[in-house]
Write a structure and sequence with these properties.
Chain lengths: ~280, ~375
């Protein structure tokens, strides 16, 4: 199993199939933001959702954005996805603007809820973005099949979403995001609505998926164990205004069984993240 | 007796009351006062005996199927004999007659509760779902018939259903011509044009917001116009024939479809819209793949509302000038000629057409919006 370790030690890492493998440093950058600001106008004054965000994410990384609610982690993800426009600073996604990346199908977005269309079967839901892209029927069928295989949903193609459990629905929505064959997966608390047991299971599956596909993953969560278990880097954010407090390397190696969460190394990183969250939350001097 | 009682007897209040009423009517029949002027004594005795027997048996512990059969025979057999006794006996029903009818009705009630409630919970539920309302409807007709004939209700006030039925059978050609004129031409054509334009304008108004802002208040005003005012104007504009009636139907159905479709198009969730945006989908792709399916329950609401509005509109519009054919024309002229059975025949036709129209739309809705939480299986 090949899991790309985090970039600071990435020399020997193998980048799996599906993504470009040039070693050129500037080309390895998939997402790059410089002094990003975003201010929402509201009825009683404006709210600064993002303030001075400077972040580089390399190809094949698994980066988690963690922080309390209101820290702008989801907003940052939405800016990367061109679902929000920044009001200041610059951002480059996949070598172009976020809008260009969105139009190119450079990313697959996974929402907090599965957001499957109830009138479409599971396979028709996974085929939805492919229809929008105007792919031929046989190519759609091929991609639907291979991506449902990837998330272990073979046998449920003809079911409707409401006949499936929440965990299976979210797996279908991941298959739908992967069907676009994007370079990146942007995931906004995808397992937040699921119970702990299902969540553990899906975390394990997501790691395997990441290893086999080699996609860059940006993952929003408010669960410390989830972030430490999955990530190569953890971006700790703090609220009012939403900003990056600290970026923590999370070098747990390639092989991460669920039991790793009891290892001293894991607990040490989790402790650092918790300290970072607490410090970021404290009123500024 | 004490040991036997709980196993043999299963008293229920409908059958107990029916037993008492039937017993009273039996005494009345024995007292040599016949139920009606033309009903002979033996028939009256047969009715009373049938009812007493069925009511008594219904208080015993029986299988649901056996009890249902006994109740059906007792209830409808008695009702059939009682209605037969009304021939040429306008307004002469006695207390005994009414008591017997009451007993038969109570047994019918008991039949419905046996069928729909305790006992029969097997795979026959689909059949029972049809039988129960049929029994209800049948009893409404029986009471209607018995009350109008037995109590001597004047024909002009309310003709008995048998007279209406005879009129329908005798006037099928007139009814067919009226149906074609009013329903096939005015209602269907007006309905299709009104619903289709309402839908298309909603699609445009959704795409170009200024269109909606300008149009909605005007549409609102048009929908508030009284039909009584529009109909004569439409007759002047479009002539006496069905075109003017179709125009009234268009005016009445356009706005409900416009408003409902707009509401349906606005019902899409943020997450789903964001999802389509991440695919770089065009406006029309989002419309076709997401927003129209979401809007379907709203659109079907409008279709169902409009189905009744269209029928009302076309019939009433014919009161304001029409060629000598059409359901509204027939109703207004036959009322003037005191031919109330013909009026009721048209009303029955309108009721059947309206129910079928609505039922068809409901079936279609179920097929199209099978995914909606209210239809999921």
């Amino acid at each position: 199993m090949n899991i790309a370790p985090h970039t600071s030690a990435s020399n020997g890492s193998s980048v799996p199939q599906g993504s470009s493998t040039q070693d050129d440093a500037s080309d390895r950058k998939v997402i790059s933001t410089r002094n990003l600001d975003l201010t929402f106008p509201t009825a009683d004054g404006s709210v600064q959702a993002l303030s001075d965000i400077t972040l580089d994410i390399d190809r094949g990384e698994f980066v988690s954005l963690i922080g309390p609610s209101g820290c702008g982690k989801t907003t940052l993800l939405r800016v990367i996805a061109d679902l929000e426009k920044p009001t200041g600073g610059s951002i480059e996604v996949n070598g172009t603007t976020p809008e260009g990346a969105r139009q190119d199908g450079a990313y697959g977005y996974v929402f907090q809820q599965a957001a499957l269309f109830p009138w479409r079967t599971i396979e028709a839901n996974v085929a939805l973005p492919l229809e929008v892209m105007g792919l031929k029927a046989e190519e759609r069928a091929r991609r639907v099949r291979s991506n449902l295989e990837l998330v272990n949903l073979i046998g449920f193609e003809k079911k409707f979403p409401w006949q499936l459990s929440g965990g299976m629905q979210q797996r279908a929505s991941i298959a739908r995001a992967l069907a676009v064959e994007p370079d990146m997966l942007l995931m906004d608390e995808p397992f937040g609505a699921l119970d702990e047991i299902v969540r553990d299971h899906l975390n394990e599956e997501l790691l395997k998926l990441w290893a086999t596909t080699g996609k860059t993953v940006v993952f929003v969560t408010h669960s410390i164990p989830e972030a430490v278990y999955l990530s190569t880097r953890i971006v700790v954010m703090s609220p009012r205004p939403g900003r990056i407090h600290e970026i923590i390397d999370c070098d747990l190696g390639a092989d991460r069984p669920l039991e790793i969460r009891e290892s001293p190394q894991f607990l040490k990183i989790a402790h650092r993240v918790r300290q970072g969250l607490a410090a970021g939350h404290a009123p500024e001097a | 007796m004490h040991a036997d009682a709980p196993t043999r007897l299963a008293p229920n209040w409908q059958a107990l009351l029916a037993f008492l009423a039937a017993l009273a009517s039996l005494f009345s029949a024995l007292a040599a006062t016949p139920f009606t002027a033309t009903m002979d004594g033996t028939a009256a005795l047969m009715v009373a005996a049938l009812l007493v027997g069925a009511a008594a048996l219904s208080n015993l512990r029986l299988s649901a199927a056996l009890e249902s059969a006994i109740l059906a025979i007792g209830s409808f057999g008695a009702a059939w004999l009682l209605l037969g006794g009304l021939n040429e006996a306008f307004g002469t029903a006695t207390l005994g007659y009414w008591l017997a009818l009451l007993a038969a009705w109570l047994l019918g009630w008991r039949l419905v509760s046996v069928l729909s409630g305790d006992g029969v919970k097997t795979g026959t539920s689909r059949l029972i779902a049809l039988i129960v309302p049929a029994i209800f409807g049948l009893w409404i007709l029986i009471f209607w018939e018995a009350l109008t004939r037995g109590a001597g209700v004047p024909f002009v006030l309310l003709p008995p259903p048998s007279a209406i039925g005879l009129r329908i059978a005798a006037a099928t050609d007139i009814l067919a011509a009226d149906f074609v004129q009013t329903v096939v031409k005015a209602v269907l054509i007006g309905y299709l044009i009104g619903c289709l334009t309402g839908f298309l304008v909603a699609i445009l108004a959704d795409r170009y917001r200024f269109f909606a802002n300008g149009l909605l208040p005007i549409g609102n005003m048009v929908s508030a116009l009284p039909m009584i005012g529009i109909a004569p104007i439409m007759v002047i504009w479009f002539g006496f024939d069905w075109h003017s009636k179709a125009a009234v139907v268009v005016v009445m159905t356009f706005f409900p479809m416009l408003v409902n479709t707009l509401a349906g198009l606005a019902a899409t969730g943020h997450m789903e819209r964001d999802l389509m945006r991440t695919y770089g989908a065009s406006h029309w792709q989002v419309l076709g793949k997401l927003r129209l399916p979401v809007a379907m329950p709203f659109i079907f609401n409008a279709l169902k509302i409009n189905s009744t509005l269209a029928l009302i509109g076309a019939i009433v519009a014919e009161f304001f000038g029409t060629p000598v054919v059409g359901m509204g024309f027939r109703i207004s002229t036959e009322v003037g000629r005191m031919n109330l059975d013909m009026v009721w025949a048209e009303i029955a036709l309108a009721a059947i057409v309206g129910s079928l129209f609505y039922g068809l739309l409901a079936l279609l809705e179920r097929a199209v919006t099978f995914w909606h939480p209210s239809y999921r299986q």
